């Protein structure tokens, strides 16, 4: 079976109170996907600061016994053996045109990789990002902030301006990826019967705490599983609509609200799906991949 080499650049905050769990779920999904080779995870800021993301990722890996390697930046206050940006450059140069980058955080590591190797993105197979919006993002009357592209607007702008094949899963589309309470209960029932009790409790507590917060703050029957759409797209792009759009050369609005500026025509055409086309198939796949990813050993 052919596999796709993937690096996930993310701001995992899985068990941090008041922070999103979707980066952690994306790691689990990628580990459970038989057609994906998760080469490594690079850690950025976003949902939490650099140190918070590093701590959450360590706990996620250790508490759930997940088999992945992660790389961080000195911004955490710790000195890494191999910095995230160096890992990106070394890995892409070792496998030119074979690595797909998933970006679900602040993207600073990719910006720093371009400083080390200005041709870095020329050697990447493609980039799939979760982030941005084209107009204010409102859920049940509540305006929702953007916490990826606007964290490091210069990084996002560099990726936009490069010639790398680019897919953006924006906030409007990914809000359709509802991790509902019914879905959570179905998953929990299976995991409780198959995982050791300490692992199940760690996973269930983080999910339930975030779900309760989103139910209260956004009147949702669950939470938006934003980031996992990037992983699903790798396996099944047909689950999404396939709109192609043109990016404006001036993307300064990213700094204000993560706003992506589109034009009728430009030299930079990208893919930006507008909707999940087959939500039943999407949810079934997420269910199966999460189960597989959580039962690696």
TrEMBL record:
Nucleotidyltransferase keyword on record: no
Domain Inosine/uridine-preferring nucleoside hydrolase: 6-265
Keyword ATP-binding included in the entry's annotation: no
GO MF annotation list: hydrolase activity, acting on glycosyl bonds
Record's keyword terms, sorted: Glycosidase, Hydrolase
Pfam families: IU_nuc_hydro
Assigned EC number: 3.2.2.-
PANTHER family referenced in this protein's UniProt entry, alphabetically: INOSINE-URIDINE PREFERRING NUCLEOSIDE HYDROLASE (PTHR12304), URIDINE NUCLEOSIDASE (PTHR12304:SF4)
Protein name (database record): Inosine-uridine preferring nucleoside hydrolase
């Amino acid at each position: 079976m052919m596999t796709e080499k993937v690096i996930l650049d993310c701001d995992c905050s899985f068990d941090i109170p008041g922070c999103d769990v979707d980066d952690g779920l994306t790691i689990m999904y990628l580990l459970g996907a038989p057609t994906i080779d998760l080469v490594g995870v690079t850690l950025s800021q976003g949902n939490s600061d650099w140190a918070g993301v590093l701590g959450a990722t360590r706990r996620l890996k250790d508490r759930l016994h997940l088999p992945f390697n992660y790389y961080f930046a000195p911004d955490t206050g710790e000195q890494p053996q191999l910095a995230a940006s160096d890992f990106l450059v070394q890995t892409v140069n070792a496998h030119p045109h074979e690595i797909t980058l998933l970006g679900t955080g602040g993207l600073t590591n990719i910006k720093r990789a371009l400083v080390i190797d200005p041709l870095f993105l020329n050697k990447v197979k493609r980039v799939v990002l979760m982030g941005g919006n084209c107009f204010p993002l409102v859920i049940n009357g509540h305006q929702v902030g953007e916490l990826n592209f606007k964290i490091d607007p210069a990084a996002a702008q560099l990726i936009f301006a490069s010639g790398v094949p680019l897919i953006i899963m924006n906030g409007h589309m990914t809000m359709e990826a509802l991790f509902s309470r019914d879905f959570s209960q179905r998953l929990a029932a299976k995991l409780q019967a198959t995982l050791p009790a300490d692992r199940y409790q760690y996973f269930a507590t983080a999910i339930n705490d975030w779900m309760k917060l989103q139910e209260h703050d956004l009147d949702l029957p669950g939470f938006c599983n934003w980031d996992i759409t990037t992983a699903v797209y790798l396996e099944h792009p047909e689950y999404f609509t396939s709109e192609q759009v043109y990016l404006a050369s001036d993307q300064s609005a990213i700094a204000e609200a993560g706003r992506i500026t589109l034009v009728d025509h430009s030299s930079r055409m990208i893919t930006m799906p507008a909707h999940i086309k087959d939500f039943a198939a999407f949810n079934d796949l997420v269910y199966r991949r999460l189960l597989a990813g959580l039962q690696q050993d």
